[in-house]
Task: inverse folding
């Protein structure tokens, strides 16, 4: 493409640029492999079975000086005279003598039920379990618990029994899938307390089997990983910002107006800067529960801009001079990007957006929500496939045009032949790298 800065780079400069980009990628991979710890940790908590005879709204502690009245097993004589609605499962996060930290960035929780098989109380097919969940927090061991969230949620309970359902197999446990329970976008407090009940009446929690224990698996980002991750963003952001400003300044100094490809490269630099701005430093001091949603928006903006760049980059090498440098020439490919991104954004808002006010909410909890979510994902996947097929077709046409120009080179004068040979090589090299990067991004996003 005549006149664009990226096309006027010499082969030597292009190779040097590619070498430094590859070097930075290798260094970043080595930091992740040898310095950063594993991204997440999972801790399993066994819920304590507390008795709340008066069904008060007070908080029940599983241990400590104010621990609740407990039963260790539902087979105890005391458990036989306690109503099921008086049982509260209590979990303290983290374990004793430990503290949570804002460096953990987020916290997820899933439930694992230990359910014994009984002929008179089996698990019914397609059963729904109702959970009355409450969450509290505090920052020292002596202060009162502050209520954070309270919600009554429903979840599908999917269990299998690997042996025959007969009397001789009573007491064996079902194999149950983990149940999504909670997602917190910020870990701004040192201690959390979960109290959950499984209310029972004629229509609620019927056919869920003989529950013996409830386990809560807490998952959070490791503090060491967060430090390495934010540090790398802090190091790279100034460099990306300076390079973006320098690039646009060079474009502005030229006598002609910027062409479309140069504008898209500048937009890509801005989106990359937006992606790497280390806002997480501020989230360490503030309870910003919207950080996970914000990070999804960051990645969505960057990938959408990147997909638009690949299409325009290939198209500007393919189209004739009359159609070049016009955004309308790529309307349907860019429309696929905008449509797919919008679908994923709506899906993300319906899940993580709802977590801002209710971390126990899950779009997968109901059959209707599951169908809608799967439909959104399938529609976005179809858009990505159509986009990729279009990109592959454009790349093939670019290489076909390059092959045709290579055949015309012997008939050109020596000086002109060298000039066009360098441009053809640069265009082919850049197209091949862009296509390979696109494949790698698609694989990494799956």
Result:
């Amino acid at each position: 493409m005549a006149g664009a800065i990226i096309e006027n780079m010499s082969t030597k400069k292009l190779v040097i640029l590619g070498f430094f980009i590859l070097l930075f990628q290798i260094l970043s991979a080595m930091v992740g492999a040898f310095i950063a710890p594993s991204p997440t940790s999972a801790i399993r908590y066994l819920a304590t079975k507390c008795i709340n005879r008066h069904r008060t709204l007070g908080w029940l502690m599983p241990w400590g000086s104010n621990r609740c009245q407990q039963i260790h097993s539902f087979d105890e004589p005391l458990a036989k005279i306690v109503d099921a609605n008086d049982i509260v499962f209590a979990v303290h996060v983290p374990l004793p003598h430990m503290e949570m930290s804002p460096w953990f960035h987020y916290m997820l929780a899933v439930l694992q039920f230990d359910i014994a098989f009984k002929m008179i109380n089996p698990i019914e097919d397609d059963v729904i379990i109702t959970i009355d969940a409450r969450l509290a927090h505090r920052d020292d061991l002596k202060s009162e618990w502050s209520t954070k969230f309270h919600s009554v949620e429903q979840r599908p309970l999917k269990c299998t029994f690997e042996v025959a359902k007969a009397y001789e197999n009573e007491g064996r446990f079902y194999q149950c899938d983990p149940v999504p329970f909670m997602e917190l976008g910020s870990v701004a407090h040192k201690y959390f307390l979960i109290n959950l009940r499984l209310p029972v009446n004629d229509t609620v929690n019927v056919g869920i089997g003989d529950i013996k224990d409830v386990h809560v698996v807490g998952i959070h980002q490791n503090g060491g990983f967060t430090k390495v991750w934010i540090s790398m963003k802090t190091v790279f952001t100034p460099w990306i910002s300076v390079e973006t400003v320098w690039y646009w300044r060079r474009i502005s100094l030229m006598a002609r107006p910027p062409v479309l490809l140069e504008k898209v490269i500048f937009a890509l630099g801005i989106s990359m800067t937006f992606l790497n701005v280390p806002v997480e430093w501020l989230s360490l001091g503030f309870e910003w529960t919207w950080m996970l949603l914000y990070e999804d928006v960051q990645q969505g903006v960057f990938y959408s801009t990147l997909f638009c760049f690949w299409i325009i980059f290939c198209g500007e090498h393919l189209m004739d001079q009359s159609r070049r440098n016009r955004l309308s020439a790529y309307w349907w490919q860019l429309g696929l990007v905008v449509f797919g991104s919008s679908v994923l954004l709506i899906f993300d808002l319906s899940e993580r957006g709802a977590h801002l006010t209710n971390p126990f909410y899950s779009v997968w909890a109901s059959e209707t929500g599951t169908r809608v979510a799967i439909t959104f994902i399938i529609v976005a996947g179809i858009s990505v496939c159509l986009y990729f097929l279009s990109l592959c077709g454009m790349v093939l046409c670019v290489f076909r045009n390059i092959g045709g120009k290579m055949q015309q080179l012997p008939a050109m004068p020596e000086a002109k032949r060298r000039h066009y040979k360098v441009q053809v090589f640069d265009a082919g090299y850049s197209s091949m790298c862009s296509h390979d990067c696109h494949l790698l991004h698609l694989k990494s996003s799956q």
Observations:
- Residues 264 and 309 are 6 Å apart (CA to CA).
